[in-house]
Design a protein that fits this description.
heterodimer; A: 540 residues; mainly beta; Immunoglobulin-like; 3 domains; nine-stranded mixed sheet; B: 125 residues; three-stranded antiparallel sheet; 8 strands; globular
């Protein structure tokens, strides 16, 4: 009898020690056809788990079948609530672990391993709720509204497994982790009717995949009158409602990027400068003056930042150099930067094609539901973005210089790959100053650039110390309040940025501080080799 | 007399010590409950959702140089890093987030040689 009692006590103790909660998610309403709004609720069930005060979870949804509309916090009064989202990512569950075991999956993410991969069809959403009092059993965290998209041309045959919670971080007030499962494992919907070729989809093609919603589209009829316009959604799709476009009528479409995005100051960098300089040098080398270092004809336009339609020459390269140095050249230019964009767009499969020695951006399309022309891919590029960091790289064969009809003697094209290298960027308080050091062991770089972001309310940039070697042209300039651009470039393509600590930024605090976490962060961080190869720096 | 001079010298030497060389150290009893770490080592923020700045406890097994890193919440890309000289035990510091994009992040404590000692998720709202 004693043994039985002991066993019972052990079981009860074990259950108590390993109590579990759950994250439940389910539809609030019934959806029956394409265009309906699906409302999903995400809620907490305590079961035999502990008292939850921090609830954080991460889920993914299929952006080809669902379009995010809105979300509504269900957090109790006084609680903090936050929503984050990322487009084009999918969670990779921990191997050899139960995918429903949410705290194990959270711990896997927390290790910093490869827990997410890029995936164009999926978006990640993350919700965080922090409350002072324990969450009530069955309490909701959030409600989401999604529009049901047409599965036609989506690559999916049904609406199975369209939402999945990836991990959950449930904690008690003392920080202790609460074991958690999810229910169900995945969420599917069925019985969706409707959806046909009557609606039309524009798929945006750009390298700037994290910011699809910053782009808009406009469709014109044959007379140039706007028929419809709208913004692209988080998956890069613009959906034109049924009845707006007519079959067998030819339209044109264009894409535009907002001029207010702060990352526009990160589009044209020292890598673009190197390519334009190399091209300007090459343009004067050949007997006909037509040698080139570019890989695509479209680069002749993107590099022509002066806009004289005369190809790329030294005037363009010096204009970009002046821009990076923060010097006013006195000339107007078309360099992409904050408050200024020069957009190029066209149907992707002919974008940048060379026709009769002219680079083209064909925009025409003709919907035909019988011929399954119910969508187009619309490519987009920006003036000055010669290395396509934020622009679409042409795929059409005639757009590539090495495959064009030009003679070999007129080309000297070298494919510019991208490589990576480790560097160390770190801040430290020394004698009351904040020293931000850029430490590099990378050799044979003819240029490098760093866009450093700092909190101007707490620290102030006092000095930039260069130790790049004697032959480099160095630059440092504050491009916005709290953003400084620092870098170097050798105009002769001969000298290299010195290894060691080529750049040190000295800040002074504007208030008493004990440390600098978060005060200084990095945006652009890249180098360039003599042949134009871009080096993307990785910081450990 | 020699003893008095020695004592005076020690006091003067102590007065020359630069306070900025060390971060603020709290005896365990003074660490706010929201920042207390049960183990001997780790990193903890006062709140998970942050808007401007937040208190942080870095608990260390021994005095020395350590790194505090902030990584993007999906790509794991390092976007901010500082080196601190800190003491054994609890070190109450701050994280400043005003200039960071609104997003999810991971804050990480490592030793000088990048060996991970602790981490925590947080959100800039």
């Amino acid at each position: 009898m004693k043994k039985i009692l002991l066993l019972l006590v052990s079981v009860i103790f074990t259950l108590n020690s390993f109590g579990q909660s759950s994250i439940d998610y389910s539809p609030v309403n019934t959806v029956t056809q394409v265009g309906d709004t699906l409302i999903m609720k995400f809620q907490y069930f305590k079961s035999d788990g502990g008292d939850l005060t921090l609830g954080q979870f991460d889920f993914e949804y299929n952006n080809k079948l669902l379009s995010y509309i809105s979300h509504t916090s269900q957090a109790p009064s006084g609680a903090s609530f936050a929503r984050n989202n990322w487009s084009g990512y999918k969670y990779i569950p921990k191997a050899d672990a139960d995918e429903d075991d949410m705290d194990v999956q959270f711990a896997w993410w927390l290790t910093g391993g490869d827990s997410y991969s890029t995936s164009a069809d999926w978006n990640i959403e993350r919700i965080t709720v922090q409350a002072a009092a324990a969450y009530t059993n069955g309490g909701e965290f959030v409600k989401y509204s999604f529009k049901i998209k047409d599965k036609f041309n989506s690559g999916y045959s049904d609406y199975s497994d369209i939402i999945k919670v990836n991990w959950a971080n449930y904690q008690k007030s003392d920080g202790e982790q609460i074991q958690t499962i999810k229910s169900p494992s995945t969420q599917s919907i069925s019985g969706i009717a409707g959806g046909n070729a009557g609606s039309f989809v524009i798929n945006l093609k750009t390298a700037n995949t994290s910011n699809y919603t910053d782009y808009s589209y406009t469709v014109f009829d044959s007379s140039g009158t706007s028929v419809t316009s709208g913004d692209f959604d988080e998956s890069g799709q613009g959906v034109i409602a049924e009845g707006v476009l007519e079959n067998n009528v030819t339209y044109t479409a264009q894409a535009n990027l907002t001029e207010s995005a702060t990352y526009l100051d990160e589009v044209v960098t020292v890598s673009d400068l190197a390519l334009v300089f190399a091209e300007a040098i090459g343009a004067t080398d050949g007997p006909t003056g037509q040698m080139t270092t570019f890989d695509y004809f479209i680069q002749d336009i993107m590099g022509d930042v002066v806009g004289d339609s005369n190809g790329v020459d030294f005037q363009d390269s010096y204009e970009i150099l002046a821009y990076l140095q923060g010097v006013d050249s006195g000339n107007s230019n078309l360099i992409t930067k904050l408050t200024q964009t020069e957009d190029y767009s066209g149907i992707e499969d002919t974008y940048g094609a060379l026709v009769s020695d002219v680079v083209t951006f064909a925009k025409a399309f003709t919907p035909d539901s019988n011929a399954s022309v119910v969508s187009i891919d619309l490519a987009h590029g920006l003036r000055g973005d010669v290395n396509f960091s934020h622009s679409w790289t042409p795929s059409i064969e005639s757009g590539g210089k090495s495959t064009s009809a030009r003679t070999t003697s007129q080309r000297n094209s070298v494919y510019k790959s991208t490589e990576t290298a480790n560097i160390d960027l770190v801040s430290e308080i020394i004698d009351g100053e904040i020293h931000f050091s850029i430490n590099s062991d990378v050799e044979e770089m003819v240029g490098s650039q760093f866009n450093i972001v700092f909190d101007p309310n707490v620290i102030q940039l006092e000095n930039v110390i260069f130790d790049t070697g004697n032959e480099m042209t160095n630059f440092s300039n504050i491009i916005n309040d709290g953003v400084v651009r620092v870098g170097s470039f050798d105009l002769n393509f001969e000298a290299s940025v010195k290894v060691g600590t080529p750049y040190k930024l000295i800040f002074i605090p504007l208030e008493e501080i004990s440390n600098t976490s978060g005060l200084i962060s990095f945006k652009v961080k890249e180098g360039v080799r003599q042949d134009g190869t871009q080096i993307n720096f990785i910081i450990q | 007399m020699k003893k008095i001079l020695l004592l005076l010298s020690l006091i003067i030497l102590a007065g020359c010590h630069n306070d900025d060389d060390f971060v603020e150290i709290f005896p365990e009893a003074e660490v706010p409950v929201s920042l207390q770490i049960k183990g001997l080592i780790g990193i903890k923020l006062e709140n998970t959702i942050v808007t401007d700045r937040v208190a942080m406890n870095v608990k260390l097994p021994e005095s020395g140089k350590y790194r505090i890193k902030i990584r993007q919440g999906i790509t794991n890309e390092l976007i901010s890093q500082e080196m601190i000289s800190a003491e054994e035990g609890d070190n109450i510091l701050k994280v400043y987030v005003s200039s960071l994009d609104k997003s999810g992040y991971m804050i990480q404590l490592t030793d000088e040689f990048h060996n991970v000692l602790g981490n925590q998720s947080f959100v800039v709202n």
